[in-house]
Design brief:
Strand content: under 5%
Structural class: mainly alpha
Distance between the termini: 43 Å
Radius of gyration: 20 Å
Largest sheet: 2 strands, antiparallel
Helix content: 40-55%
Order of helices and strands: HHHEHEH
Number of strands: 2
């Protein structure tokens, strides 16, 4: 690695690049995390799992992602003329989805994805939930589903 090498000039340049990378990655990683959350195969559960693996159980980074996601939704809500809250009584989850018919065999045998697939989200019942909360509470799709985000 250039940061540990013997060439002083390369070490200096690598350290300068590393500082810039860390600065921009801190902002960009939140954007990627939100994009992942909006993918119905991963949602918040996968992002939380990844942050716990990389930053520990009490990760402040996941709170930043959560706050930015809700802030982004609140901004959307303030500019939208459509209602963003839906009345919800007790929701029963059958565990099936219209997307299950699209399942194909993808050979994803990564341990992280196996662990993620075994995580189930808790179901909560509130009087009213925002569209974002409803989406996050829906069961995640299997990662083995052939999925086209543009048709979702």
């Amino acid at each position: 690695m250039a940061l540990e090498g013997t060439d002083e000039y390369l070490r200096f340049m690598a350290s300068m690049i590393w500082v810039k990378f860390q600065k921009y990655w801190a902002d960009f990683s939140v954007i990627l995390a939100i994009a992942c959350i909006l993918d119905p195969r991963y949602k918040m559960t996968f992002v939380e799992l990844c942050y716990k693996k990389s930053h520990g159980d009490d990760s402040l980074e996941i709170l930043v992602v959560h706050t930015k996601l809700h802030s982004l939704f609140d901004e959307y809500k303030s500019k939208s003329s459509h209602p963003t809250t839906t009345p919800v009584s007790s929701r029963a989850n059958t565990g099936s989805s219209h997307l299950e018919c699209m399942e194909t065999e993808y050979d994803l045998d990564l341990d992280l994805f196996k662990e993620f697939d075994n995580i189930t989200s808790d179901e909560f019942s509130y009087a009213h939930k925002s569209q974002l909360e409803l989406y996050l509470d829906e069961p995640k799709m299997s990662i083995n589903v052939k999925f086209d985000i543009l048709t979702f």
